[in-house]
Amino acid sequence: MTSIIDLVGNTPMAALQYINPNPNVTIFAKLEGNNPGGSVKDRAALNMIRSAIERGDINSNSKLIEATSGNTGIALAMIASMYKIPIELVMPSNSTRERTLTMEAFGAKVTLLDNIETCRDYAEEKAASGEYFLLNQFANPDNYLAHYKTTGPELWRDTDGQITHFVSSMGTTGTIMGTSMFLKEQNPDIQIVGCQPTENASIPGIRRWTVEYLPKIFDASRVDRTIDVSEEDATNTARRLAKEEGIFGGMSSGGAAWAAIKLAQELESGTIVFICCDRGDRYLSSNLFG
Question: In which pathway does it act (predicted)?
């Protein structure tokens, strides 16, 4: 019998047909919006909760808390509901209304604060009281190990080992860390490319962290190159993906796609895969597609 949990992962890939500038390079979008919770974060949420249960860190009598900018919260709310564990999610107040409503639909308590840094501090303080268990996606190895176990192997399998470049937005950095670990074990020559916002740009799902808030799971040696993406380029590319490729993703997906396109312009040949993190319907109340 298949449950929602069994449907996490094994997402499809689609090749860009119209906005790829180089006919000698294939650019694939890894469509993570096809996960049951609608984003790549389903993978990390499942692995963090399931691994904590297996270790005996949490059970149905526990109370979870986590700071999130959105997608991780939705994924955690869905997975926690399946394991019958209550969860409080702490999110920036400028997050789209769709996110809050989706978390609440899964039964989560949602607390809105000023920004993600404030949310992280609040969650850590409440966990320190002993009443809550903090999953802490920013420092939890189970975050990136989810991608070592699933995302990396899928990319290797579905490109028949032909992948030459992997492009991912960097937020918690779990996706790029775990996928890099696996792909480099298969072929050290595969290039791992991370995306971060340009200075002062605001792109949901991609962060340029200050030193004190840099995720503890981040290891710079696992990223071969970092490409800065502007808010305008991320927005315009997300719109182009929808209008020209039929790929409906969010702003971070647009950022990763822009970086992949920029990369393709530099190459003689290759196979690039970028992470299309979530679905565009998470952003309909914003001005992304307005």
Answer: Amino-acid biosynthesis; L-cysteine biosynthesis; L-cysteine from L-serine: step 2/2
